[in-house]
TrEMBL record:
Purpose of the protein: Specifically methylates guanosine-37 in various tRNAs.
InterPro entries linked to this entry: Alpha/beta_knot_MTases, tRNA_m1G_MeTrfase_C_sf, tRNA_m1G_MeTrfase_TrmD, tRNA_m1G_MTases_N, tRNA_MeTrfase_TRMD/TRM10
Domain tRNA methyltransferase TRMD/TRM10-type, chain residue ranges per copy: 3-224
GO CC annotations, alphabetized: cytosol
Source organism (scientific name): Deinococcus radiophilus
Residue stretches of biased makeup (Basic residues): 259-268
The protein's name: tRNA (guanine-N(1)-)-methyltransferase
Binding residues annotated for S-adenosyl-L-methionine, in chain numbering: G114, I133, G134, D135, F136, V137, M138
Compartment annotation: Cytoplasm
Protein family: Belongs to the RNA methyltransferase TrmD family.
Gene label: trmD
Length: 268
């Protein structure tokens, strides 16, 4: 079973997230476990104080290394720990590839959620990974922990109703996802594309791939060098307005040669 143990100063921020929707159902089915721990219980003092002023001066407070060490020792005494993850702006950016790797690895993951000015630098020697969810600043790591847990948990076999439903998601294929439609068939004078209502599954697959390429080219062309493009994709990107120079920069394969029409032999 994939287990997340989250060390945080505000476990109640995460409790509804862990008990509802996808994570709640996954826990109820015994596929994922989320343990929320208040870091203050390992403060070592009657005031439950886990932070102190930084050496050298400066604004804010720093979470103490001895508090984190006691918490990790206590969790290890209950069950083996496979990974200790510290959420920090200095960490490696978490991506869909990260989520897939974590879900495949499984095991017991401890996530450290910082607050204030973060952790004492000596906490770094206690962790196995430092992770960031993006280049922006938040008040603490709880929201980031929620993002990571959901991204990983949904890839655990059995969590999603359709085992293949995540394979066409944005980033899983290397491209942004294609647009989706449902009822009503016409809304505000905009209709559902005819191809999606025609029942030709081959045509639908081609349309969806073309739409995914178009969206990625328009909105996130930085993804294309890593998208595993096929020769047919190169041809479609050229049709969508990409240049041969761009295809070369993306290491895209050569588009297939156009088929030549056979000349009919004149009757003898």
């Amino acid at each position: 079973m994939l287990t997340f143990s989250v060390l945080t100063l505000f476990p109640e921020l995460l409790r509804p997230f862990a008990e509802e929707a996808l994570l709640g159902k996954a826990q109820a089915r015994g596929l994922v476990r989320v343990n929320l721990h208040d870091l203050r219980q390992w403060s070592g003092n009657r005031h439950h104080k886990v932070d102190d002023t930084p050496y050298g001066g400066g604004a804010g407070m720093v979470i103490r290394v001895d508090v984190v060490a006691r918490a990790l020792d206590a969790l290890r005494a209950e069950a083996p720990i496979d990974e200790v993850v510290m959420l920090t702006p200095a960490g490696q950016t978490f991506t869909q590839a990260s989520a897939e790797a974590w879900a495949t690895q499984g095991g017991h993951w401890v996530i450290l959620c910082g607050r204030y000015e973060g952790f004492d630098a000596r906490v770094e020697r206690l962790v196995t990974r430092e992770v960031s969810i993006g280049d922006f600043v938040m008040m603490g790591g709880e929201a980031a922990a929620a993002c990571i847990m959901e991204a990983v948990a949904r890839l655990v076999p059995g969590v999603l109703g359709d085992e293949a439903s995540h394979q066409d998601d944005s980033f899983s294929s290397g491209l942004l996802d294609y647009p989706e439609y449902t009822r009503p068939p016409v809304w505000a004078d905009e209709g559902v594309p005819d191809v999606l209502q025609g029942g030709n599954h081959g045509a639908i697959r081609e349309w969806r791939r073309s739409q995914a390429l178009a969206r990625t080219l328009d909105r996130r062309p930085d993804l294309l060098p890593h998208a595993g493009l096929m020769p047919q994709d190169s041809a479609e990107l050229l049709r969508l307005g990409a240049s041969a120079e761009q295809l070369a920069a993306w290491n895209a394969p050569e588009p297939p040669a156009p088929k030549q029409k056979r000349r009919r032999k004149p009757p003898v």
